[in-house]
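name: query_chain
kind: protein
chains: 1
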Amino acid sequence: MGSPDEVRRERLEELRRRMAAIPARGAGASARVPLGDASGGVHGAPLPVPSPLAALLPEGGLVKGAVVEYSGAGSLLTGLLAAVTAAGGHAAAVALPRLGLLAAAEMGAHLGRLAVVPDPGPDPLEIASVLLDGLDLVVLGLGGRAVPPSRAKVLAARARSKGAALVVTGGAWSGSVLRIDARVAGYDGLGRGRGRLRTVRLDVCVRGRSAPPRTGQLALTPREGRVEWVAGQSDSVYATATEAVG
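structure:
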């Protein structure tokens, strides 16, 4: 074992080697074709999300080059990763040790396009910075950290220059363009048959910098051997309940 600095450098070099091995991405953001885009826009069409969430987002997906704050149910974070990789994109989950790969696969994720770094060491932001160089989406767990505005600006600028979306969760971040809050509204299917949980319902609130909050309900339900996101009834009370958050 080397010194902590040597271990850190080796980890970063290994990540860079893995990024270079991703097809059509090793040459950097300027050489890659943005996911879902065949022609226009600085970074192309937004990244796909679970379909009922798309109706709540101003651009209908995650804008490339933007930073999004997320709080609440981990299942929807998994759904974001699944949607991007299922559509042919590449994504990473950093400092999210409770991320369930089985759940992601059941949502349709292509696990070969998903990098998982459950223990990024003392500086997960630096690991995320490396991953932004070659991926479409990076989901970063902050572990309760309050990220200094200076570092937040640097990482946001890197996401913007590389055309990658960055979703941060579990901490304090300044300067995000969008915030998504999700909370469990209820469960269906308990106590029926073998008692297996069948559906989870989430109340979701999306807030942008200049637009009024948009609220709705999403449901995660099994269907034909998979689990799918479907739209539920909107909950207008949730917007008021979350106004004090952030």
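note: Confidence is low (pLDDT under 50) at residues 24-34, 36-42, 234-246.
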